[in-house]
């Protein structure tokens, strides 16, 4: 367990994760250029109800994320995805952890366009789910996405998540209303899925 001093306060830092090809770490302010490259990509904005982020807002967001400690809840916890072979930040995975009493979280991910379709998203997402059910001891995870987001749907299904509901015309993106799928996964289901994967 490591600690860091942030604004004069000693905080227990959030776990850093490693996979075969990736390093999942706390974001840093010097990630700004890489963060904005995928965060504001029109391809990412097309299927999410978010607006482009300014440099100033992105800097503040990254600074706030870097200051979160391992007990943070009721907030989005972002992990920068850094590719080991070139130390390049290629995207993020994250989890919105509800209060500790609820033991539930909502997960998501986003990659730079030129890092897509290479297996990085599923590799990082599996590590995130392991973190959620392991270190954070959550009991349940969810993920929501536009019904048009085929890549995200495939990733959820590869994680062993079940489609639990579809809300009709529930999300507005740039004036266009999308149906929204919600997926769910319990800790016991994840354990079974991991056994099947070998």
Layout of strands and helices, then pairs:
Layout: E1 3-6, E2 9-12, E3 17-18, E4 22-25, H1 32-39, H2 42-45, H3 55-66, E5 75-83, E6 88-97, E7 104-111, H4 120-133, E8 140-146, H5 150-158, E9 162-173, E10 176-186, H6 187-197
Parallel strand pairs: 7-8
Antiparallel strand pairs: 1-2, 3-4, 4-5, 5-6, 6-7, 8-10, 9-10
Give a structural overview.
The protein is 29% helix and 36% strand. The chain contains 6 helices and 10 strands; from the N terminus they run E-E-E-E-H-H-H-E-E-E-H-E-H-E-E-H. The strands form 2 sheets. An 8-stranded mixed beta sheet has the order 3-4-5-6-7-8-10-9, sandwiched between helices. It starts with a strand and ends with a helix.
Notable traits:
single chain, 198 residues, alpha+beta, Aminopeptidase, eight-stranded mixed sheet, two-stranded antiparallel ribbon, 29% helix, disordered N terminus
Q: Determine and state the CATH class.
A: Alpha Beta
How large is the radius of gyration?
17 Å
Strand order of the largest sheet: 3-4-5-6-7-8-10-9
Counting DSSP H or I runs of 4 or more residues, the number of helices is 6
Enumerate the spans where pLDDT stays under 50 for 5 or more consecutive residues.
1-11
Mean pLDDT across all amino acids? 91
How many strand elements?
A: 10
Encode the helix/strand succession as letters: EEEEHHHEEEHEHEEH
The main β sheet shows up as: 8 strands, mixed
CATH fold name = Aminopeptidase
Q: What is the number of independent domains?
A: 1
Concise summary:
With 198 residues, the protein is an alpha+beta fold.
């Amino acid at each position: 367990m490591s600690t860091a001093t942030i604004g004069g306060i000693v905080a227990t830092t959030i776990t850093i994760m490693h996979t075969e090809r990736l390093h999942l770490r706390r974001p840093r302010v010097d990630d700004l250029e890489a963060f904005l490259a995928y965060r504001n990509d029109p391809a990412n904005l097309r299927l999410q109800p978010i607006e482009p982020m300014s440099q100033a807002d992105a800097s503040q967001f990254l600074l706030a994320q870097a200051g979160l400690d391992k007990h943070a809840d009721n907030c989005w916890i972002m992990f920068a995805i850094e590719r080991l072979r070139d130390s390049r930040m290629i995207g993020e995975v994250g989890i919105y952890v509800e209060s500790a009493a609820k033991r539930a979280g909502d997960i998501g991910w986003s990659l730079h366009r030129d890092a897509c379709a290479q297996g990085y998203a599923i590799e990082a997402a599996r590590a995130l789910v392991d973190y959620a059910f392991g270190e954070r001891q959550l009991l349940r995870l969810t993920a929501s996405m536009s019904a048009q987001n085929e890549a995200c749907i495939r990733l959820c299904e590869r994680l062993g998540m079940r489609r639990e509901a579809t809300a009709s015309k529930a999300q507005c993106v740039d004036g266009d209303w999308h149906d929204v799928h919600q997926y769910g996964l319990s800790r016991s289901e994840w354990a079974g899925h991991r056994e099947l994967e070998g």
